Amino acid sequence: FVCFSAAAFFARRREFLYLGGILGSIITTFCWLQFASMLFGGSSLYFMIEIYGGLLLFVGYVLFDTQMIIEKADRGDLDY
């Protein structure tokens, strides 16, 4: 967590903000795939994709959210 927050902190301004829409789409896809897995049965391959994909997804959210907090603070909004 600290490493990815530091990466977002030391990156150029707004470098990771484009990830918001992409991450939202991926998490929606994971939700639909989980629903389909409950209906039709899942496989161990899907389970591994879900685990490691979810890990990468939330690493992306750490980067995105850290940069959002930094941008809001730069604009004077200190309510985080």
What would you note in describing this structure?
78% of the residues lie in helices and 0% in strands. It has 80 residues and is an all-alpha fold. The model has no long low-confidence stretch (mean pLDDT 85).
Q: Topology as H/E string?
A: HHH
Helix-strand makeup class: mainly alpha
Identify low-pLDDT runs.
Answer: none
Number of strands: 0
Main sheet summary: none
Number of helices: 3
- Specify the oligomeric state: single chain
Average pLDDT number: 85
- What Rg do the Cα atoms give? 16 Å
Strand content: under 5%
Distance between the termini: 18 Å
Measured as a percent range, the helix fraction is over 70%
Shape summary: elongated
Short précis:
The protein is an all-alpha fold and 80 residues long.
